[in-house]
Write a structure and sequence with these properties.
Largest sheet: 4 strands, mixed
Distance between the termini: 40 Å
Number of helices: 4
Number of strands: 4
Order of helices and strands: HEHEEHHE
Strand content: 15-25%
Shape: globular
Structural class: alpha+beta
Length: 130
């Protein structure tokens, strides 16, 4: 069920408690309804912060063209993959949820930014202020 108002109240509480330098949220083009809501409320709540939207590989095929890349060394990339697999146990029955897929997206993003290690994390940076 939709509980947007309750989630918005939670976000406002976070804003009162913390002053983050960077806020990470789901990509606004994510087709999963919960992910879209979180992204929308993140932008609604943290208007004066640097917000980077991350992508999630999944069945929906809703990956976009990110414009902000962070090259990763191979050790960090492997650690990231193992952490995802370990921490998101509710997804293990999904056909797309495996180390090969997660390695592939990091490799693809590594190619796109010419990462020395061949691995990179990619984000969508809608608004940057220098």
């Amino acid at each position: 069920p939709y509980i947007g108002a309750e989630i918005k109240d939670f976000f406002e509480e976070l804003k009162r408690k913390y002053l983050p330098d960077i806020v990470l949220t789901h990509y606004r083009g994510d087709l999963h309804q919960d992910h879209r809501l979180v992204s929308e409320l993140t932008w609604n709540t943290f208007r004066s912060h640097l917000i980077l939207e991350y992508e999630i590989v999944k069945y929906d095929g809703d990956l976009g063209v990110p414009n902000f890349f962070v090259p990763l060394n191979e050790s960090i990339a492997r650690n990231k993959i193992q952490t995802i697999v370990r921490c998101f146990g509710s997804q293990v029955d999904k056909s797309w949820f495996n180390e090969g897929v997660f390695s592939s997206i990091l490799r693809l993003r590594g190619v796109e930014c010419r990462a020395p290690s061949g691995f990179a994390e990619a984000f969508f940076a809608r608004k940057l202020v220098l």
